[in-house]
Description:
Blueprint: H1 6-20, H2 27-37, H3 44-53
Amino acid sequence: MRVESSAERRSSERQSASRSLRFEVPQQIDSARQKRASWGGHSARANAKAMSRRQCKSARKSKDCMIPGCVKGARSRGLCKRHGGGKRCTFSGCARSDQGGGFCIAHGGGKRCATEGCKNSAQSRGRCKSHGGGKRCRAEGCAKSSQGGGFCRGHGAGRASKVKTANILF
Length: 170
């Protein structure tokens, strides 16, 4: 004959107590739950599947590039963009990556600066760096483009210890 331990006895008591605490859900509440679960005419299972596809990239399992030492995510063929994954420029003999429209930047792909006559690539706000696109220097009164750390070269970008702090806004 088997003797129950005190831990097993407590576990079985908890299970029997939880069984006795179950109650019937009123019909109104149950139908409200079904309405909430059904979204856009789809079942709760279909909605859960759709939500899992919408997870942020860090939550999804992504494959890394197969090149040893590379930690970037693979685009296609097991390779990152740098090592040949993703779409390629369709210009004859070019192996660079596609930047939009089927071409690399050199062959006309990607967005161009909105300033008339400028053929440079747009950084932000539809303009290249020389026409106001991209991040600007954080120093007061400076309109040059940021080169690193939020500052232009004249205000300390690239220099670790010699930063001009007289006109810097914080």
